[in-house]
Amino acid sequence: MMRIACAIYTRKSTNEGLEKEFNSLDAQREACEAYITSQKHAGWIAVRDMYDDGGLSGGTMERPALKCLLADIKASKVQIVVVYKVDRLTRSLSDFAKIVDVLDASGASFVSVTQQFNTTTSMGRLTLNMLLSFAQFEREIAGERIRDKIAASKAKGMWMGGTVPLGYDVKDRKLVINETEAKLVRKIFSRYVGLRSVSLLQAELETQGDRSKRRDGTSRRSTGGRPFSRGILYLILQNRLYRGQVSHKGAIYDGQHEAIIDAELWDLVQAKLASNRRERALAVGAEAPSLLSGLIFDSDRNHMTPTHANKRGKRYRYYISAPLLDRGSPGENPIRIPALEVEGLVCDRLRNLLATQTELVRRLSTLHLTASQLEVVLKTAASMTESWTFLPTDQIRAFVRDVVCRVAMQPREIEISVSTLGLARRLGTNLKVECGSVDETFVLRVTAHFRSAWKGKRIIVGEQLAQKPDPQCLKLMREAFAARTLVLSEGDESLTAIAKRLGKCQVRLTGLVRLSYLAPSIVEDMISGRHSIGLSAKLLLRRSKDLPADWQKQRKFLGLAESVPPPFAPAAAVR
Question: Is 445 helix (H, G, I), strand (E, B) or coil?
Answer without folding.
Answer: strand
